[in-house]
């Protein structure tokens, strides 16, 4: 069957005589709204140049695409040639862009020192450019670089879109060819069906004739029967022949009926074929419209290709201007170098010496001995002489000894600051004599008034009066700073002096389901131990209450013993006994609760994942409070963590405050809002809580189901302080997506909700003292990191042939939250880039575990990849130390400790910007971040393209900038991720809550 091509492509116009059609194809690319070309300054002014594509549009180039008249449609050679040309242009522009970046780096160095340059060079020199002119030139080049970068990005997107359109067009051509083949087959079937229909009609005519003949034969047969007796015996042969002919006609009749039925069924099939043909015609029309639309897109794209060519010509002019400016830049650079050397040798050192002399004179005010000052002065002079000598040798020695000199100055300044601070403290302790007696008398009367009005206790009033009698400068400053505030704020400020005078610290009790290293699944265990130790160092009494699991690491517990006491607690309508154990973990006192319940709640061989987890941990939460009541403890803060101990908050206020356990404020920390501890409301009654009372929208009722309660929501409602583990995550959970249904509850309690970034235990995670490592090392000496890398390679059987081959590590739980699809992709992409990959982790999700087991088996004998699918504490330390980079591609990450530990060990993080990762990892190429905070490589979108960009930049940085990479490693190792800062924030929250409680109780 022949079919004209115009039937398939209605938008194509044919010339006379069956000549092939010619169609114009134009390509248009639309830049993103955020990509705006930057203005370039010139001639000392900021003159804006309009780089709009509409104002610079040139005449659209046309490409003729010849199509053959047969069904096979080919992609255009002209478009392919355009694609190749654009690729060449892209490569050329990339090379030019690199050249410009090198020139701009030179300009940046010149700019940083141009002001110094002109101090040492004759100002009357005519050829010397002004400072303003240089700045304008530098700005012009920088903006030109950014414009070129934007144009290259647009060109790349144009190529990608063009390739995509061509691919789609080829697919459509293939589909059209298939449809045409199907149409040809259908036409053939129709012709066969028509022939069979004619045949059937002939058969029907023959059948009709046979019926007539049969009827006539039957009449003849009857006649024969009638005259049978009269027929002589000689005629029997003719009768028999007629009977045989009649039988044959009957058989033929049956066969014809069967053939007729078969033909009818074939006719039915023909009708169905006609319906399918109609459907195929409709699909063909849809495909033709799609092809037409793609043609229009291709035409629009071609227009933008021509416009890009015009922009390239304009960029070429910019390159020529840049080359013209290089002569001036060379001179400016030379002058800057001269100025730097002169100022480093003379001006800077002399100015610092002058400052030192002034500091020495100032130090004499604080009664330092002249002998000590002289020693410092002589020491400074000796170091200055050493610096002068080595400045003359080489520029490198200049830099190193200038740094040494600055360190010495810093040391001296620190000493001086300490002396000033001591003097200031002494001055605070000394009476303030410049305030009139009326001021102090007014303070005394105010304090006495608070005491008589029962706003403060007599003991607090006595301590405050003593401070006033001594004319203590601290209370004077405190009053002056808050005298404009209301009375209660002044009282709270003054009571801070009494609290610091009457008690050494707060009594804090953590009730949790995990504690590292004895019972750890995730970051929760690290937080409980790290925060507890940091608060303990600050002088607070910290205690931990933990379930006694049968699968704990008992070797990490010191002096563990069972107390000769039994604590009973209510559950499921009766009292159950509980055995109490004590011991110390990492120097912290810990109480372990062992329930004597027939369900063996904590004897299951694992911490979580049981069908009755809700019952297990609601039971534990009540026993923990029962223990505090039984021991007659009076804590200031009860800190509970995650849904497993979220029951503590409502239990405390509803059941234990009436029993006398009423001294504490409740702090609740949710480490991950993904897990909220929901259950049918009836299950809440097991631990003694009133489900009818609490199953309300403003209390514990789950926001998505009226018949279920939510333990995390209950903790948010009933706690005095609610925290999560990073500032960014605290903002993310206020949204519907991040809050997992609790965003409305969090927003309604926002005044007590705050995000505090977790820290790490710098004693446990310290490469200088880590016994799990082959070689210990530090930021000042990182050579041991390479030896640990070789040790890991030998341990896992990886190739050690190339020392500089980058090693990428990944230590994580393999769950969807951690971005398992990107981890899987990272394995292959790392190998493609020429690196090695090591994964340590396992998955509680069966299909994910099986998937990574298959990958592990695939790379079992590979020399550059290894997967260890288990938990191994010792191996994790070695991977941190051995890795050059460590990936954390989380979909969401409340805080994350992996990136902090990695940087502590000099492994550069490659992380997605989410949650705590966004608060701790800052991209080295992000100009909006101060240089001292840039410590890794980040990406935003959780897809392969975003991850590839960060990974490839890290590889390029590692391979091409060895010295800079070393500096980055040392900088990351020196970052303070300890718990000290975070613990101070918790301490402040605790103090405020306790002071509010004390103030409220006094009133």
Structure report:
This protein is of the alpha/beta class and 1003 residues long. 57% of the residues lie in helices and 10% in strands. A nine-stranded mixed β-sheet has the order 5-6-7-4-3-8-9-12-13, with helices on both faces. Helix 4 (236-365) crosses helix 5 (370-393) and helix 5 packs antiparallel against helix 6 (395-429). The longest helix has 130 residues, at 236-365. The protein starts with a helix and ends with a helix.
What keywords describe this structure?
1003 residues; 57% helix; nine-stranded mixed sheet; disordered N terminus; 19 strands
Unreliable stretches (pLDDT < 50, length at least 5) are 1-98, 104-129, 229-234, 426-430
Number of helices: 27
Structure summary, number of beta strands:
19
Q: What composes the largest sheet? A: 9 strands, mixed
State the separation between the terminal residues, measured CA to CA: 100 Å
Radius of gyration (CA) equals: 43 Å
Protein name: Starch synthase 4, chloroplastic/amyloplastic
In short:
It is built from 27 helices and 19 strands.
How are the SSEs ordered, and which strands pair?
Layout: H1 5-8, E1 22-24, E2 64-66, H2 77-120, H3 131-226, H4 236-365, H5 370-393, H6 395-429, H7 437-452, H8 458-469, H9 473-482, H10 487-502, E3 507-511, H11 523-537, E4 541-547, E5 558-571, E6 574-585, E7 588-595, H12 613-630, E8 637-641, H13 648-656, E9 665-670, E10 678-680, H14 691-694, E11 708-710, H15 711-718, E12 721-724, H16 727-732, H17 736-739, H18 743-748, E13 753-755, H19 783-796, E14 807-811, H20 820-832, E15 836-840, H21 846-858, E16 865-868, H22 873-882, E17 885-888, H23 898-904, E18 908-912, H24 915-920, E19 937-939, H25 944-960, H26 962-973, H27 979-1002
Parallel strand pairs: 3-4, 3-8, 4-7, 8-9, 9-12, 12-13, 14-15, 14-17, 15-16, 17-18, 18-19
Antiparallel strand pairs: 1-2, 5-6, 6-7, 10-11
Helix pairs in contact: 2-3, 2-4, 3-4, 4-5, 4-6, 5-6, 7-8, 9-10, 11-27, 12-13, 13-15, 19-22, 20-25
Protein name: Starch synthase 4, chloroplastic/amyloplastic
């Amino acid at each position: 069957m022949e079919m004209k091509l115009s039937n398939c492509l209605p938008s194509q116009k044919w010339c006379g005589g069956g000549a092939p059609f010619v169609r114009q194809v134009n390509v248009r690319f639309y830049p993103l709204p955020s990509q705006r070309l930057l203005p370039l300054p010139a001639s000392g002014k900021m003159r804006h140049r309009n780089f709009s594509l509409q104002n610079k549009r040139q005449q659209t180039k046309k490409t003729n695409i010849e199509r053959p008249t047969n069904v096979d449609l080919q992609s255009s050679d002209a478009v392919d040639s355009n694609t190749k040309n654009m690729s060449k242009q892209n490569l050329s522009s990339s090379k030019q862009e690199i050249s410009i970046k090198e020139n701009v780096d030179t300009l940046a160095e010149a700019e940083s020192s141009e002001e110094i340059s002109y101090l040492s060079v004759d100002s009357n020199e005519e050829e010397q450019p002004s400072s303003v002119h240089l700045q304008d030139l530098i700005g012009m080049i920088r903006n030109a670089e950014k414009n070129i970068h934007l144009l290259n990005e647009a060109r790349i997107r144009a190529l990608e879109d063009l390739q995509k359109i061509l691919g789609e067009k080829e697919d459509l051509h293939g589909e059209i060819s298939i449809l045409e083949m199907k149409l040809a087959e259908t036409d053939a079937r129709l012709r066969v069906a028509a022939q069979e229909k004619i045949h059937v009609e002939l058969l029907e005519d023959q059948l009709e004739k046979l019926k007539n003949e049969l009827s006539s034969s039957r009449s003849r047969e009857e006649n024969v029967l009638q005259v049978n007796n009269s027929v002589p015996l000689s005629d029997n042969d003719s009768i028999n022949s007629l009977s045989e002919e009649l039988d044959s006609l009957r058989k033929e009749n049956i066969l014809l009926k069967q053939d007729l039925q078969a033909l009818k069924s074939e006719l039915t099939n023909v009708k169905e074929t006609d319906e399918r043909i109609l459907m195929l015609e409709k699909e063909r029309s849809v495909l033709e419209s799609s092809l037409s639309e793609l043609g229009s897109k291709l035409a629009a794209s071609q227009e933008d290709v021509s416009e890009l060519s015009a922009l390239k010509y304009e960029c070429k002019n910019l390159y020529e201007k840049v080359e013209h400016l290089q002569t001036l830049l060379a001179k400016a650079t030379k002058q800057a170098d001269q100025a730097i050397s002169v100022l480093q040798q003379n001006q800077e050192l002399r100015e610092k010496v002058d400052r030192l002399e002034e500091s020495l004179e100032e130090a004499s005010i604080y009664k330092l001995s002249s002998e000590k000052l002289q020693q410092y002065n002589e020491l400074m002079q000796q170091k200055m002489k050493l610096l002068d000598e080595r400045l003359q040798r080489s520029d490198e020695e200049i830099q190193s000894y200038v740094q040494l000199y600055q360190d010495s100055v810093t040391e001296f300044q620190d000493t001086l600051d300490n002396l000033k601070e001591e003097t200031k403290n002494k001055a605070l302790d000394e009476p303030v004599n410049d305030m009139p007696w009326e001021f102090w008398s007014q303070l005394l009367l105010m304090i006495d008034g608070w005491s008589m009005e029962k706003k403060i206790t007599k003991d607090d009033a006595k301590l405050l009066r003593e401070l006033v009698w001594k004319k203590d400068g601290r209370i004077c400053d405190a009053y002056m700073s808050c005298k404009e505030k209301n009375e209660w704020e002044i009282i709270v400020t003054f009571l801070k002096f009494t609290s610091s005078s009457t008690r050494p610290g707060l009594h804090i009790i953590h009730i949790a389901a995990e504690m590292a290293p004895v019972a750890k699944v995730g970051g929760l265990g690290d937080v409980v131990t790290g925060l507890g130790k940091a608060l303990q160092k600050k002088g607070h009494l910290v205690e931990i209450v933990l379930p006694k699991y049968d699968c704990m690491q008992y070797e990490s517990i010191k002096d563990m013993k069972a107390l000769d006491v039994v604590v009973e607690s209510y559950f499921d309508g009766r009292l159950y006994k509980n055995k109490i154990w004590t011991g110390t973990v990492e120097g912290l006192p810990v109480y372990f609760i062992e329930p004597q319940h027939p369900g063996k709640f904590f004897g299951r061989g694992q911490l979580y994942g049981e069908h009755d987890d809700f019952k297990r941990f609601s039971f534990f939460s009540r026993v923990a409070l029962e223990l505090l009541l039984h021991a007659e403890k009076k804590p200031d803060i009860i800190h509970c963590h995650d849904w497993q101990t979220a029951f503590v908050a409502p239990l405390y206020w509803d059941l234990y405050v009436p029993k006398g356990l009423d001294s504490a404020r409740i702090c609740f920390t949710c480490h991950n809002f993904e897990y909220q501890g929901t259950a049918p409301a009836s299950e809440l009654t097991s631990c003694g809580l009133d489900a009818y009372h609490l199953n309300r929208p403003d209390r514990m009722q789950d926001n998505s189901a009226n018949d279920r309660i939510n333990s995390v929501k209950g903790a948010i409602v009933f706690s005095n302080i609610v925290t999560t583990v990073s500032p960014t995550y605290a903002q993310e959970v206020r949204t519907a997506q991040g809050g997992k249904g609790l965003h409305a509850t969090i927003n309604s309690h926002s005044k007590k909700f705050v995000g505090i970034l977790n820290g790490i235990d710098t004693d446990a995670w310290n490469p200088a003292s880590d016994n799990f490592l082959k070689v210990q090392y530090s930021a000042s000496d990182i050579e041991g990191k390479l030896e640990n890398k070789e040790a890991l390679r030998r341990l896992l059987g990886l190739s050690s042939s190339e020392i500089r081959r980058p090693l990428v590590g990944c230590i994580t739980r393999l769950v969807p939250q951690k971005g398992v699809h990107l981890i899987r992709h990272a394995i292959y992409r790392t190998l493609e880039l020429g690196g090695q990959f090591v994964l340590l982790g396992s998955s509680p999700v069966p299909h994910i575990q099986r998937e990574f087991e298959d990958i592990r088996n695939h790379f079992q004998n590979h020399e550059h990849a290894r997967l260890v699918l288990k938990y191994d504490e010792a191996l994790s330390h070695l991977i941190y130390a051995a890795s050059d980079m460590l990936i954390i591609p989380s979909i969401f990450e409340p805080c994350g400790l992996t990136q902090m530990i990695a940087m502590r060990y000099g492994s550069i993080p490659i992380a997605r910007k989410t949650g705590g990762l966004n608060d701790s990892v800052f991209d080295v190429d992000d100009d909006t971040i101060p240089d001292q905070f840039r410590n890794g490589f980040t990406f935003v979108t959780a897809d392969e393209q975003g991850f590839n960009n960060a990974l490839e930049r890290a590889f390029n940085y590692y391979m091409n900038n060895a010295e800079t990479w070393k500096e980055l490693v040392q900088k990351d190792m020196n970052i303070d991720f300890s718990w000290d800062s975070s613990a101070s924030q918790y301490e402040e929250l605790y103090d405020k809550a306790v002071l509010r409680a004390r103030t409220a109780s006094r009133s």
